[in-house]
Amino acid sequence: MTSAAATPQDVPVHVYGGPTTLIEYGGLRFVTDPTFDAPGSYPNGGGPELVKTAPTAITPAELGHVDAVLLSHDQHADNLDRAGRAFLADIPLTLTTTSAADRLGGDTRGLAPWESVELTRPGGGTVTVTAAPALHGPVGSEPVVGQVIGFVLTGDRLPTVYVSGDNASLDVVREIADRVGAVDTAVLFAGAVRTLFFDGALLTLDGTQAAEAATILGARRVVPAHVDSWAHFTEGRDEFVAAFAAADLTDRLQLS
Fold first, then answer.
1. How far apart are CA 227 and CA 242, in angstroms?
2. Model confidence pLDDT, tens digit, residues 76-102
3. Is the pTM here over 0.90, yes or no?
4. Of 56, 122, 150, 230, which residue is the least packed, with the fewest Cβ within 10 Å?
5. How far is CA 159 from the centre of its chain?
6. Sheet of 94-96, strands arranged across
């Protein structure tokens, strides 16, 4: 994988609430985990309803052209809601887990961890999107929470970008760092989600873990996502920022 130093202007990243993020990379426009429903309560697969507390800061129409969606998983409304599902119908390609692709159909493609797809860049060349492993809870939680993946974006003379998805495991982060090397930009889904299942274990990174993940990855820039707009997040943006300050990593943060 080829990487290079870059400034935030080289790879614009904009977080619009929850996990929904626009990444402009190699001339292509990627959106992560689209959630556009209004604030309110939403079903959660038989568990307690998930409560959205704030609207997404952009509409699908305002996003404009999108080349691909990077969908970490489809089974939770805070990562793919009803409006997000409708949005997928207008997108040429959605990359997601193999099980989500089976459920969603349409223009979705399932990727197993470390499987890659090449997308053609405007003007020539390609962007490689590689599925990265993710664990949405403690070891052994996957049969309950379902499959989740993250993503690594690479390309010739482009910086490496990592999107964590709903990952709670620093061991997984170490595996990614060992495989990929240092990343330029890490979009880390945090929020310190906990549940009564698994004795209150984290289902996503908390701020302290996110700071450690940034160090493990050697990330020059960290963009926090999945830190607001939902009531079940036990930490927000302020806790994320405080954890990076405590780790002396404030200079790495991009708060979009």
1. 13
2. 999 999 999 999 999 999 999 999 999
3. yes
4. 122
5. 17
6. 13-15, 21-25, 28-32, 68-70, 94-96, 108-110
